[in-house]
Amino acid sequence: MAKKPRTIITCAITGAIHTPTMSDALPWTYDDIAAQAVEAAEAGASILHLHARNPENGAPSVDPEDFTPFLGRIKQATDAVVNISTGGSLTLSIQDRIRPTMLFSPEMCSMNMGSMNFSFHPLAKRYDDWKFDWERDYVANSDGNIFRNTFRDIEEAATTLAPHQVKFEHECYDVGHLYNLKFCMDIGLFKAPIFIQFVMGILGGIGADIDNLVFMKKTADKLFGDDYRWSILAAGAAQIPLAVTASQMGGNVRVGLEDSLFISRGVLADSNAQQVRKIRQLVEDLGHEVASPDEAREILGLKGGDKVQF
């Protein structure tokens, strides 16, 4: 009997877009980030994509001291692959954003493949009362953001992190980012097999629909041939539908409260694990099996959990 296809589930636990006001389920304390990450792994996520938060008010943080309290706990409680974001701030430099990865040397980290307008300011109109003073201006003023990821920034991050043997989750928000990645491969910054995350539905990037997913996939096939693995991150209401489509196209999937606060249209998710359980059920019902952490390591060519520094 032929072996069933394996689908890697990544869960993005908290991110840097949503704020505490938007959902009581969004984890922002050290304890909640750790607990929800472990629960997501137990539900079937083989990769945990992690941001940090200020434990006093839930504001996004790239301070390594805000990663320390939960990274060790996650590693002790699960065998999941830890993926640390290098995109935890839309305003700080790449040097600041890669500090946690440099210190903790995880198996994976994210890498945005181009500068872009990155905004979520329409969310500010949905709420009248905010839990913390920083939230409203943070959301409303995102229409002035340029998320900087120049070729120089990408090269600096790649060369600085090269000794750590970290596998990058190359986040591509539009077709041009795939061409940026191809250029970077051609000059030797990244080696196959690369792992591409198609990011769809962010204001400033490509829209979240099936035609765009097919086009992104066809473009990646043309540029990278057999030298890449891929996944999809679809924001908001498109999260689960496009994840299901991607799994049937041979891709992997990412869910989590970073990308969507909902479990179905108009219904807030109770936790990250709830989203993982839902996509796992759908993927398995359609004939795939969910990859274990060790299977994900083999598929992506990771260095192994024994080589991290936390």
Which helices and strands appear, and what pairs or packs with what?
Layout: E1 6-7, E2 9-12, H1 30-43, E3 47-50, E4 52-53, E5 60-61, H2 68-77, E6 81-84, H3 94-97, H4 99-104, E7 108-112, E8 116-117, H5 133-140, E9 146-147, H6 151-161, E10 167-172, H7 175-186, E11 194-200, H8 210-224, E12 228-234, H9 239-248, E13 252-255, E14 262-264, E15 267-268, H10 272-285, E16 289-290, H11 293-300
Parallel strand pairs: 1-16, 2-3, 2-13, 3-6, 6-7, 7-10, 10-11, 11-12, 12-13
Antiparallel strand pairs: 4-5, 8-9, 14-15
Keywords: Metal-binding, Transferase, Zinc
GO molecular function: 3-keto-5-aminohexanoate cleavage activity; metal ion binding
Cofactor: Zn(2+)
Overall mean confidence score, pLDDT:
97
Tell me the series of helices and strands, N- to C-terminal: EEHEEEHEHHEEHEHEHEHEHEEEHEH
The CATH level-2 architecture is identified as: Alpha-Beta Barrel
Major sheet strand order: 2-3-6-7-10-11-12-13
- Fill in the CATH topology: TIM Barrel
Q: Which residues form runs of ≥5 with pLDDT under 50? A: none
Query: For this structure, what is the CATH class?
Result: Alpha Beta
Q: Kindly give the count of domains.
A: 1
Radius of gyration computed on alpha carbons: 18 Å
SS summary, helix count: 11
Please indicate the percent range of residues in DSSP E strands (runs of 2 or more): 15-25%
CATH superfamily: Aldolase class I
**Helix content bin:** 25-40%
- The assembly state of the depicted protein chains is single chain
Globally, the shape reads: globular
